[in-house]
UniProtKB/TrEMBL annotation:
GO terms for cellular component: cell surface; growth cone; plasma membrane. It is a single-pass type I membrane protein. Residues 698-719 are annotated as: Disordered. This is Cell adhesion molecule-related/down-regulated by oncogenes.
Length: 1158
């Protein structure tokens, strides 16, 4: 037991050893308390916080117990249910709806039988920022107040005070209008750091009623607004006014800051004209870290230092004078350790112990000493004395051991250190863990430790296999506390014993050494060549001891600098296993690469050279020399670096300053193994030359140009090429050619000779000299072949003899019109036109094609668009013409055309297009009439494409959640002039969609949709509604019977039937599926819709496209043809026959009785 108590002193100095050792030692010896973590203050409690967790954790053996103090007194919880303090764990958990009762300064004490450690003060602050404390959860708000308008004369200053509420930092202030437009700030108008808005002088346009101050608290996601303020500026001619300061007041301000805080000095002036602000530091140069903001009104300096102390002056000046303000800036500092906190000590009994607490700060910190948490002022016999920052224990005894606290404080804060002091004599304590394992690699050195703690110091020796360690390969260090093996071998593996002894006793530990295989690179990277822009790969294969797998890594360096490897997509370097990949390489990647195979014990390296192949450098030292004439020269050069890729060719370029100065053109190419080129030059030019090289990677940059080289004039070397013969007029022929470029003319006086003759008709050429590259031959026969030659000449001679070219003279317009025009109507908008082609001789040129033109007879002034007045290229006899308008009458003509123009038109042919479906209704609106009634109003479609017969109205009850259709109904509305309809009997508080289509005899057009929501039904009126419904149903039943009788009688007498026309069925599948027995819907603006059997639908839902009546001539006629009402043929009859039905409109009881009486 005595030895265990002595061993506890080792933990006093655990900071001097490894964490692993401290943990090991903690479990076998006693240890005084050491604070290892605690919650640093201050702790800010917000209004929505109901729980505080204050941490305090200490290390010690026996485990320490904890207690807390608040404001220097033992902390007694006001309510046991609101606090949980675990004496074994130390953490303090405070719970309350009102955390303000826990405000104060707390300390945590951790104690065991060896002493007491304590924390620094932990301050808890409950943040209050509510206008009224009656609300438990309140937010910052501006006080309610009535603000009178601020009335000033133009030129006077204005201060709009914000007075923002306190709240959780950070707090941001904004000045805006009620519509959230920022108030413009400038040198005249600006916001101060206090949140107020300052006007150095007022202008007339400053008058407004909605100046608003907004305070934003981002941490609690809150923005509050002050009541809007009004400013009225009376217009006057403002006099000049000497500046004064709106902020700050007075002439001098003292500014005290802590070192490291940010300094802000502010001067906001007023005056007219607007003053400017300047700053100086009196007697010193302003720090370069100073920044000026807010139009020079705010001086900012971040992280102030002692050198930033001094007197600063701001000056506000305008044409009328100036004003100044002085700032005394004082930089202070909280306490801090001069070097490091005082260290724990172990010493023998009877020695003197000095504990020094060296601190600095401004103001100078006061030092307070404690022992085991209690105040310590020395003892009466003066064996333990306190000298301000030092405690001395004379002739120390074992009972003087304990935890001493040094606390230094000034008005800016405090620091505290716990110092463990132990006075004892003890046998050697080997701090190194017994059976500590060491690893080394063959050929490397290894050091084994035997750290001994004892009082007095111990004698230390090492043995292996019971033999003392000897030899040049072993070296004892630090009085034997370390044993170093210089060059480890496999045979050095084994157990080593460290023995330590002093007058108090002895101790020993064992160290285990394992010598491992060395790490090696067995497949080093190879020298590699790669093209610029491509992927480079370097491989590095390694071997290492299998037991070091977890610590192995492969590192790549270029020129001894580690290559940055990143997982980002834009990184050019990546490692895949043992391979380094470099993407998009360039010349900067060329160099020596080193791969290093590394484990926790050793490493090995290998290098390789990466060669990058790139485009060649520009040639240098160009030289030009003549051969037999100035137009035949030799250009030579010295090639530049090929950048590791052989040059395949050189390109010679030239520039001349007569015709195209500054423009370089390719002249010649030579192979890459020669550095000369023989050049053939044009005459009468002033040349300069340059060369660039090309290799497998690409072309390199060009060389510097040569000196100018002038060539003499000469006759042209060639004649024009690409001769073209065209005839723009009937008796003309235009001859054009690709002219020689100016550099090819070789001299002055350049011109062309044009020679032509009619092929097979003339023997001699007609000749003309021209300067242009075009020549016009007049009075030629129409469209006949000619033979042409073009020659070049200048003042020095003619070019070589050219080869002849054949072409045709000009064309004329055709003379004949197509005959036998036939028109076949395919559908409402498309027809087929055929004709007999014109004789080829009448074309009088190259046949261009035929043109078909249509003109509406219903609107003679309107001719179809060009897309319908169509041209068809080539020789043809029929075409398809789309894009006609339904239900129209047209006149059609056809003519032939060539390049010259159009021939005469054919005799016109007149035809009619069938009736089509209308366009979409242009306007559809809805309004709620009653709880179950909706009134619809609409406008007719822009184009009816036929005779408008009425409308098809479909309405659908919509599921408002799934947005699908629950129920659908439809109504046929007769009468083309109807423009409104009332639908009754709808379900209350429901969403309906209404689809309205306009209809002709050909069918109904696309729907126009409208949605409407009915009102919720009134429960009190349900009885009257039911009564109305019963009456309505009776009336409908009676009218239905009357309609059935009327239909029967009228069918027997015969009725008016619509003619079927060959049209495609309407796309409305619901309409197409309707039964033939469906009754027609009838309504007008005054009566309810009626449904009766055998009435005809206006939808045109029968398969034949009959939009007026299903009672067609097809029901009574045989054969496969269909006729319109005047009996004319309009197309083949198709579709199934349907039972006939009639259309009834305007049915009233009186008309029914009259019908029955017939």
């Amino acid at each position: 037991a005595f030895m265990v108590e002595l061993l506890s002193v080792g933990l006093l100095f655990s900071d001097s050893y490894s964490n692993d050792f401290c943990v090991w030692l903690y479990f076998i010896v006693e240890q005084p308390p050491t604070i290892i973590t605690y919650t640093s203050g201050p702790i800010i409690v917000l209004h929505f916080d109901t729980t505080i967790n204050v941490k305090c954790k200490a290390r010690g053996n026996p485990p320490p117990e904890y207690r807390w103090e608040k404001d220097g007194q033992a902390f007694v919880p006001p309510n046991v249910q609101t606090i949980r303090a675990n004496q074994r764990k130390g953490s303090l958990v405070l719970q309350s709806e009102d955390m303000s009762e826990f405000e104060g300064k707390y300390r945590c004490y951790a104690s065991n039988k060896l002493g007491t450690a304590m924390t620094n003060e932990i301050e808890i602050k409950a943040f209050k920022f509510c206008i009224s404390m009656s609300s438990l959860f309140c937010i910052p708000k501006f006080p309610k107040e009535t603000l009178s308008p601020i009335v000033v004369s133009e030129g006077e200053p204005i201060t709009l005070k914000c007075n923002p509420p306190e709240g959780v930092a950070p707090r941001l202030i904004y000045w805006m209008t009620v519509d959230l437009q920022h108030i413009e700030q400038n040198e005249r108008v600006s916001m101060g750091t206090d949140g107020n808005l300052y006007f150095s002088n007022a202008l007339k346009n400053d008058s407004r009623q909605d100046y608003g101050c907004f305070a934003a608290f981002n941490r609690i996601r809150t923005i509050v607004q002050k009541n809007a303020m009004a400013v009225v500026v009376k217009p006057v001619a403002p006099p000049a006014r000497i500046p004064s300061l709106l902020l700050p007041s007075g002439v001098q301000t003292e500014k005290v800051l802590l070192k490291g805080e940010d300094l802000q000095l502010e001067c906001i002036p007023e005056g007219f004209p607007t003053p400017s602000v300047k700053w100086i530091k009196m007697g010193e140069v302003m720090s370069p870290r100073v920044k000026f903001n807010n139009y020079n009104k705010l001086l900012s300096l971040s992280a102030v230092e002692e050198s930033d102390e001094g007197k600063y002056m701001c000056t506000a000046e305008n044409s009328a004078g100036k004003a100044v303000h002085y700032f005394d800036v004082i930089v202070e500092e909280p306490p801090k350790w001069l070097t490091e906190p005082p260290q724990s000590q172990l010493t023998v009994i009877g020695s003197d112990v000095h504990i020094k607490c060296s601190v600095s700060g401004k103001p100078q910190p006061a030092i307070t000493w404690r022992r085991n948490g209690g105040m310590f002022r020395g003892d009466p016999d003066k064996r333990m004395q306190v000298f301000d920052d030092t405690v001395i224990l004379f002739n120390a005894k074992a009972e003087d051991s304990g935890v001493y606290q040094c606390e230094a404080s000034n008005r800016h804060g405090n620091i505290l250190a716990n110092v463990n002091i132990m006075i004892m004599n003890m046998a050697p304590l080997i701090l190194t863990e017994n059976n500590q394992e060491y690893a080394a690699v063959v050929g490397k050195e290894i050091t084994m430790n035997c750290s001994v703690f004892s009082s007095p110091p111990s004698s230390i020796s090492w043995t292996k296999d019971e033999k003392a360690i000897e030899g040049e390969g072993f070296l004892a260090l630090e009085s034997g506390q370390s044993l170093k093996i210089i060059n480890a071998e496999k045979g050095d593996s084994g157990k080593y014993i460290c023995f330590a002894s002093n007058v108090e006793g002895s101790s020993a530990v064992t160290a285990v050494l394992d010598v491992k295989d060395a790490t090696k690179i067995v497949g080093p990277p190879q020298n590699t060549q790669v093209d610029s822009g491509k992927l480079a790969k370097l491989m590095c294969k390694t071997e290492y001891d299998a037991s070091l797998q977890d610590t192995f890594e492969l590192v790549w360096r270029k020129e001894n600098k580690e290559i940055p490897l990143s997982s980002e997509k834009n990184s050019r370097y990546s490692v895949k296993g043992a391979m380094l990949e470099i993407m998009n390489v360039n010349l900067s990647d060329q160099g020596t690469y080193t791969c290093t195979a590394r484990t926790s014990l050793d490493e090995d390296s290998a290098t390789a050279v990466l060669t990058v192949r790139d485009v060649p450098d520009a040639p240098i030292k160009l030289d030009l020399s003549e051969l037999d004439s100035p137009r035949n020269v030799v250009l030579s050069w010295i090639p530049g670096s090929d950048h590791n890729s052989t040059v395949t060719e050189f390109v010679v370029e030239y520039e001349e300053n007569r015709w195209e100065p500054g423009r370089w053109k390719e002249l010649q190419r030579v192979t890459g193994n020669q550095a000369t080129a023989e050049l053939k030059l044009y005459g009468n030019l002033n040349y300069q030359f340059r060369v660039y090289a090309v290799n497998a990677i690409g072309p390199g940059p060009p060389s510097e140009p040569t000196e100018r080289h002038k060539t003499p004039p000469a006759a042209p070397d060639r004649n024009p090429e690409n001769i073209k013969i065209q005839g723009h007029h009937p008796h003309q022929m235009e001859i054009s050619w690709e002219p020689l470029s100016p550099v090819e003319r070789n001299g002055p006086g350049f011109e062309y000779k044009v020679k032509y003759r009619q092929l097979g008709m003339e023997d001699n050429f007609t000749e003309h000299m021209v300067n242009r590259s075009v020549f016009l031959v007049s009075n030629t026969p129409t469209f006949v072949p000619y033979e042409i030659k073009i020659l070049s000449r200048n003042s020095y001679g003619w070019g070589p003899e050219p080869k002849p070219v054949t072409g045709y003279s000009g064309e004329d317009v055709p003379t004949a019109a197509p005959r036998d025009i036939a028109v076949e109507v395919i559908n409402t908008t498309v027809l087929r036109v055929s004709w007999t082609p014109v004789p080829p001789a009448t074309v009088r040129g190259r046949l261009g094609g035929y043109n078909v033109s249509c003109q509406s007879l219903l609107n003679p002034d309107k001719i179809l668009d060009l897309s319908h007045s169509m041209s068809f290229s080539g020789n043809r006899s029929h075409v398809i013409v789309p894009g006609l308008e339904p239900f129209s009458e047209y006149k059609l003509t056809v003519y032939v055309f060539n390049k010259k123009g159009n021939g005469p038109k054919s005799d016109p042919v007149t035809f009619n297009t069938p009736e089509g479906v209308p366009e979409q209704v242009s306007v559809l609106t809805s309004s709620i009439i009653q709880r179950d009634s909706v009134r619809l109003e609409w406008a007719q479609p822009p184009k009816s494409n036929g005779i408008l017969t009425g409308y098809l109205l479909q309405y659908h009850l919509i599921n408002e959640t799934a947005l699908d259709v629950i129920d659908s109904k439809e109504i046929n509305i007769t009468g083309a002039d109807t423009n409104h309809w009332t639908i009754q009997g709808l379900k209350g508080d429901s969403l309906y969609r209404f689809d309205l289509r306009a209809c002709t005899r050909a069918g109904c057009g696309p729907p126009q949709a409208e949605e409407s929501h009915t009102d919720f039904p009134d429960q009190e009126s349900s009885f009257s509604t039911h009564g109305w419904m019963i009456g309505t149903m009776c009336a409908v039943a009676l009218l239905t019977i009357v309609v059935v009788i009327a239909c029967f009688l009228r069918k027997n007498k015969g009725g008016k039937y619509a003619v079927k026309e060959k049209e495609e069925p309407h796309s409305d599948t619901e309409s197409q599926k309707m039964n033939d027995d469906t009754f027609c819907d009838y309504s007008d603006s005054d009566e309810k819709p009626l449904k009766g059997g055998s009435l005809c639908s206006l939808k045109g839902d029968d398969a034949t496209g009959d939009s007026v009546s299903r009672c067609t001539l097809g029901d009574y006629a045989d054969g496969g043809r269909e006729f319109n009402e005047d009996g004319s043929f309009i197309g083949e009859y198709s579709g199934h026959r349907h039972r006939g039905s009639v259309i009834l409109s305007g049915i009233t009881p009186s008309s029914v009785l009259k019908l029955l009486s017939q």
